Amino acid sequence: SAVISQKPSRDICQRGTSLTIQCQVDSQVTMMFWYRQQPGQSLTLIATANQGSEATYESGFVIDKFPISRPNLTFSTLTVSNMSPEDSSIYLCSGWDGLNEKLFFGSGTQLSVL
Amino acid sequence: KQEVTQIPAALSVPEGENLVLNCSFTDSAIYNLQWFRQDPGKGLTSLLLIQSSQREQTSGRLNASLDKSSGRSTLYIAASQPGDSATYLCAVRHDYKLSFGAGTTVTVRA
Questions:
Q1: Which of A105, A110, A112 to probe the B interface (max B CBs under 10 A)?
Q2: DSSP labels, chain A
Q3: Over the stretch B29-63, which tens digit does the pLDDT of each residue have?
Q4: Which of A96, A105, A108 sits opposite B41 (nearest CB)?
Q5: Furthest-apart CA atoms within chain A: distance in Å
Q6: Which chain B residues are closer than 8 Å to A40 by Cβ?
Q7: Concatenated DSSP letters for B62-83?
Q8: Rounded to an integer, what distance in angstroms lies between the CA atom of residue B1 and that of residue A94?
Q9: Residue B9 DSSP symbol
Q10: How far apart are CA A13 and CA A83, in angstroms?
Q11: Any residues with CB less than 8 A from the CB of A63 and at least 6 apart, and which?
């Protein structure tokens, strides 16, 4: 199945700054998603990244805080803006393998905000 | 809203013992259920996928069962090894979205 390369793998950031996370897939995928996993908790869907149009955000997540780009079918970025310590989480991108009806994941970005 | 629960939250067993991990969900209208493994600070690796029409799936030492009507799935890992130590998550699919459980953290003692 397809492989997602996600970077950075981890970062430590200062309050008030922004971080952009990149995901590159080795083949075209129709759907990509961004998840957040707060410490000790399960994964929460942030948004669906739509190719060539605005992302679709889940309840509780807004574009100003988590702008997403998806310029083509193999690449997407998530920016965590104006960070606070509450944004400390693992952020994961994923792609939909329609052939096998599975979700596959990047290796995650562990973000710590001081 | 789909709620997915995994019990126990943590499990510690001696090497060689069989593992039984439980997952329950509140809405039985699912397309499929997927089990994942997550190593500390890392992404998720897909282990098994069970379609809603299936009762079980097997891969090597792993076997997953699904009882859709009662909203339950069980992951069995035979003859556990220290390398099986990780967090195991189940996720149920509805449309293209997945709802995840909080996971069971497994420690296999050598």
A1: A105
A2: ---EEEE-SEEEE-TT--EEEEEEESS--S-EEEEEE-TTS-EEEEEEEPTTS--EEPTT--TTTS-EEEEETTEEEEEE-S--GGG-EEEEEEEEETTTTEEEE---EEEEE-
A3: 999 999 999 998 788 999 999 999 999 999 999 99
A4: A108
A5: 42
A6: 102
A7: EEEEEETTTTEEEEEESS--GG
A8: 22
A9: S
A10: 8
A11: A54, A55, A57
Per-residue pLDDT at B94: 80
- Across the A:B interface, residue pairs with CB atoms under 8 Å apart total 51
Q: Mean pLDDT score of chain B, rounded to an integer?
A: 94
Fill in the DSSP letter of residue B84.
G
pLDDT value for A47: 95
Q: Give start and end residues of each alpha helix (H) in chain B.
A: none
β-pair partners for A96:
A103
Rg (CA), chain B: 13
Rounded alpha-carbon distances, angstroms, from residue A86 to A16, A30, A38, A89, A114 = 12, 31, 9, 8, 10
pLDDT at A51: 87
Task: Tally DSSP H helices, then E strands, for chain B.
Answer: 0, 11
